[in-house]
Amino acid sequence: MRIETENLDNYRKSCREFLKREIVPDHQAWEENGLMERSFWEKLGKSGLLGISVSPEFGGQGKHDYRFAVILTEELIKAGVTVPGIVAHNDVVASYIFALGTGEQKKRWLPELCLGKRVAAIAMTEPGGGSNTADIKTVAERQGDYYVVNGSKAYITNGFNADLIVVAVKTDEGQQGQGISLLVIERDMPGFSRGEPLKKIGWNGSDTAELVFHDCKVPVTNLLGRENLGNYYFMSAMPRERLSISTVAVASAENILQHTLEYVKERKAFNQSIGSFQYNRFILAQLDTEVKIARIYLDNAIALFNQGLFSLVDAARIKLWTTELQMKVADRCLQLHGGMGYMRDSIAGKNWLNSRAQTIYGGTSEVLQEIISKSMGL
Ligand SMILES: Cc1cc2nc3c(=O)[nH]c(=O)nc-3n(C[C@H](O)[C@H](O)[C@H](O)COP(=O)(O)OP(=O)(O)OC[C@H]3O[C@@H](n4cnc5c(N)ncnc54)[C@H](O)[C@@H]3O)c2cc1C
């Protein structure tokens, strides 16, 4: 156990040093361009921070303990670096391919993903709606050794930069709410195009784009898993994706609370620090308590996940609770910064804008409450 803790501590130290040295100096430029530099991915890969849970046989780090992924996320948040693109590449797509790919597919795709030579994305949401994952309109029709794909996807993280995209497509129109498959669509496949990076209000250091497939020819060898089992695969992968979003939520809430605490001790009004007013002390005491509860809840979820005991409903509950809390903390902390909090480049301002997406992607709070209430027999 002690050795394991030492490993985690060393890993944290190496993430922190790497981000400070290689990433923080460039991050402002990424935010201005709405895009991560391609070179960033290769730097991450060289430092061994990609493919954390992928086996070394396929170029990964073989760290199956989810706490390693948590540490990387926490350090990214502390360094103020845009997170969703890294989570999508590392935590979501690499895990899908590692879990579902054939030996040949893993050899073909994972080493380059782990080295950051190729960037990954996952595309489920469509312009017509994202909440109902069973209602996918992008169609893939089998023609000999190819699928011919027609349709489009919306708001895809890394969509502009991605070389390899796991795309949810409908392969059997006849199956009510089913008949969905996962195809890996690669850069330069004929019939695949994408829009410019979308102008978001937050998380500006990673790109989000629309993808269009017009008679796009995808070899049958790019089918991930079995045909028509896509919905089952989403359900299996969702706990991990939602746990990673909850990790972002808790780490962000802790980080902005600490930052705000320092600010309110320094900033003065009516000849006293603003943190010394009873009203503000009580707000901070309440936030501190709630964030500590969230940390315990998250640690418990991570332990369950590591034991294979973390369910889809557990994931819905923790994502709902931690992301809603994150928004509340972000809002109260911005208020405590006064006018400074409303400045776009202030830490409190950016944190507030970033927090807003968290209750939307990976399942909206409303959809999560549908899942939770169904599990209660309602
Ligand atoms: C920054 C960002 C990054 C993203 N990255 C990705 C990505 O990488 N890949 C990807 O596939 N998608 C991505 N998305 C899309 C995201 O997953 C969807 O926006 C989300 O699932 C909601 O879908 P929608 O936007 O179509 O909203 P809609 O489905 O149109 O929903 C609109 C509103 O209606 C509510 N609603 C829907 N159904 C119900 C119901 N049954 N009861 C009550 N209310 C309901 C929703 O909760 C929401 O409030 C991203 C989005 C953002 C903002």
TrEMBL record:
Its cofactor is FAD. This is Acyl-CoA dehydrogenase. Residues 5-116 form the Acyl-CoA dehydrogenase/oxidase N-terminal domain. Keywords: FAD, Flavoprotein, Oxidoreductase. Residues 230-376 form the Acyl-CoA dehydrogenase/oxidase C-terminal domain. One of its GO terms (molecular function) is flavin adenine dinucleotide binding. InterPro entries: Acyl-CoA_DH_CS, Acyl-CoA_Oxase/DH_mid-dom, Acyl-CoA_Oxase/DH_mid-dom_sf, AcylCo_DH-like_C, AcylCo_DH/oxidase_C, AcylCoA_DH/ox_N, AcylCoA_DH/ox_N_sf, AcylCoA_DH/oxidase_NM_dom_sf. Transmembrane segments: none annotated. Pfam families: Acyl-CoA_dh_1, Acyl-CoA_dh_M, Acyl-CoA_dh_N. Residues 121-216 form the Acyl-CoA oxidase/dehydrogenase middle domain. Belongs to the acyl-CoA dehydrogenase family.
